[in-house]
Amino acid sequence: MCYLVFFAALGILSILFPGIDLNSYEQTDLNRLLEEEPLRLMFLAVILAPLIEEGMFRTLIIPSPNELIFFICTWLLVISLAIIPEDVYWMIKYGFLILLIILSFIFLKEFIPLKWQRSLCAFLGKYYKIIWALTAVVFGMVHIFNYVEGFELNFVLVLLIFPRIIAGYFFGKIKVENKSLIWPIAMHAMNNGLVFVFLLPRILFST
Predict the structure, then answer these.
(1) pLDDT of the residue at 110
(2) Burial 178-192 (b: 16+ CB within 10 A, else e)
(3) Rounded to an integer, what distance in angstroms lies between the CA atom of residue 163 and that of residue 170?
(4) Res. 180 pLDDT band, cuts 50 70 90
(5) Per-residue pLDDT tens for 31-71?
(6) HSE (side-chain half, CA atoms, 13 Å) at 125
(7) Residue ranges of the domains in the chain?
(8) Residue 38: how many other CB atoms lie within 10 Å
(9) How far apart are CA 16 and CA 12, in angstroms?
(10) 143 DSSP 8-state letter
(11) 145: left (phi over 0), alpha (psi -120 to 50) or beta
(12) Which pLDDT score is estimated for 157?
């Protein structure tokens, strides 16, 4: 419902202010993957991105000890992703990263004392509303890099990432209400999967 209201408001805004060019930014990397490697894009959008992004942003909202460890693992994965050369075949690269998450989780679970894990979880749980709001905004801001290479912020980009902030809010709401990370991951995957389904005609007709 919020999406519908937002895009309706966006349409009205475009009519009232025709100088606003919402097509001035494109998701060039995603468009390239869509045309050249649709299977890779589907894997990223429906499987890897929901796991990593929910691990990075929703784990800290009323976390369990396991979710706290998973939070650390996902950030280790992001750092590793920046180090691995681009020309490594994507199945090998992402397979290695998934294995890294599993091994890191096992190691950190044993390395970090359970008492510390529980204390930090209790502390974060007290401020979950602040964390919920902050992570929703940061989740949206991170998606600026879908449109530009360096960090840049202007009115058009704010409009483009605003749906992601809305999504981040509702993914957090699902986490709070269900007290489990699996639900926002599933909702995130469904959301991305639905977008991919809408893009299927473009894939089919371009081949």
Answers:
(1) 92
(2) eeebebbbebbbebb
(3) 11
(4) very high
(5) 777 778 888 888 988 999 999 999 999 999 999 999 999 99
(6) 13
(7) 26-206
(8) 18
(9) 6
(10) G
(11) alpha
(12) 79
Taken in order 42, 43, 45, 46, the sign of the CA dihedral is positive
The residue written with tokens 């993957």 in the block is 33
Amino acid at 122: A
Tokens of 92: 């090998």
For the chain, the maximum distance between any two Cα atoms, rounded to a whole number of angstroms, is 58
Please give the DSSP secondary-structure letter assigned to residue 45: I
Continuous H helices in the chain: 2-16, 28-36, 38-43, 49-57, 65-83, 90-111, 114-126, 128-142, 155-178, 182-206
In whole angstroms, give the CA distance from residue 139 to residue 142: 5
Is 139 exposed, middle or buried, given 0-12, 13-18 or 19+ CB atoms closer than 10 A?
Answer: buried
- How far apart, in whole angstroms, are the C-alpha atoms of residue 201 and residue 104? 40
